[in-house]
Design brief:
The protein is α+β, with helices and mostly antiparallel strands. Helices cover about 50% and strands about 10% of the residues. The protein is built from six helices and four strands, in the order H-H-E-H-E-H-E-H-E-H. Helix 1 packs across helix 2 (about 10-20). It comes from Phoenix dactylifera. It holds the Pfam family SWIB. InterPro entries: SWIB_domain (IPR019835), SWIB_MDM2_dom_sf (IPR036885), SWIB_MDM2_domain (IPR003121). This is Upstream activation factor subunit UAF30.
Length: about 100
Amino acid sequence: MVVARKAMRECPKKVASLIDLANLPSTLREFAGQSQMSHLSFFIRVWSHIKSNNLQDPNNKNIVNCDDKLKNILLGKSQVELAELPMLIKLHFPKAPK
C-alpha cells in the first residue's frame, strides 16, 4: 500500500490512466465480458486467466503459452514472455487526448 501511495503522489496522471474506466474494443470485450474496464483491471483479468488455465510454461515460468482466447488479444502470438505482457495489453488502451 505504501508503494501505491508514493506512486500516486509522484505520478498522479500515470496512476489515473491505469485506474480510469475505458471503453474496450470488441476483442477485449469478448475476453473480459464487459464493455468498460480500467487498464489495471483488465491486466489483472488476463493474469487470473493465465493462472486459472495453467498457461505458464512448466519449464520456464517467464513464458506464457497462449490459448485461443489470449491469442486474440496478444497479437496472435502463441507464446509471450511475462515482461511483454503489459506492453501488449497497453496497445489496446490508447492515450486519451489532452
